[in-house]
Amino acid sequence: LMLAGALRAGCSLSTAMQQVGPELPSPASQELAIVLREMRLGVSLDAALENFALRASMPSVTLAVAAMRIAHDSGGGLAEALERAASTLRAQLAMESKIRSLTSQGKLQALIVGLLPLVLLMALSKMEPAEMSLLFTTRAGVATLVVIGALEVVGVYVIRRIVSIDV
Questions:
Q1: pLDDT class for 112, splitting at 50, 70, 90?
Q2: Which alpha helices (H) appear in 21-164, and where do they start and end?
Q3: Which residues contact 120 (CB under 8 A, 6 or more apart)?
Q4: CB neighbours (10 Å) of residue 28?
Q5: Would you say 78 and 71 are in contact if contact means Cβ atoms under 8 Å apart?
């Protein structure tokens, strides 16, 4: 958005990058400085931006570089292209945050489903040790514990698969 604002103010892309670069946080400002240095050494804008996208290898950087390259090649409005890319990235971040907040309940549910039988087993062993000892000493009790353990593992696995949403 800062680049788009500088472009709207009438700056060229390289001038806008020179003005915006020092105001950005460390990794972004260093990457813009590398792009500008490559352009001063004779590398074309497309190649410098492609190198930037390869170095960063993030979807957001790839989207911004693609918008800059397309707008520069086609002669279209570079500021508008950058603003659209920024709004797309903002919408994607909002969606990821919403998904993360909605799946946190399922993750807590998986934790509770996994730990509740163990806590209940310990509490009942303290309250009724004679009756609970049958679970550990008889074949039927051990079989019951194995079935409970297997169902617990399956339950936690299913819940984790449900809440693991890839955006």
A1: confident
A2: 26-40, 45-56, 59-74, 78-127, 129-137, 139-163
A3: none
A4: 15
A5: yes
Give me 37's structure tokens: 């240095």
Residue by residue, DSSP assigns 49-64 as: HHHHHHHH--HHHHHH
Using the structure block, give the residue that is written with the tokens 């819940």: 159
3-state DSSP assignment of residue 9: coil
Distance linking the first and last C-alpha atoms of the chain: 24
In whole angstroms, how large is the CA radius of gyration of the chain?
28
Tokens matching residue 166: 């890839």
The single-letter code of the amino acid at 85 is A
Q: What b/e readout covers 4-13, taking b as 16+ CB neighbours within 10 angstroms?
A: bebbeeebeb
Closest CA to 85 of 96, 101, 71: 71
Q: CA-CA distances (angstroms) from residue 93 to 1, 8, 59, 78, 138?
A: 15, 25, 12, 22, 55
Confidence of residue 167 (pLDDT cuts 50, 70, 90): low
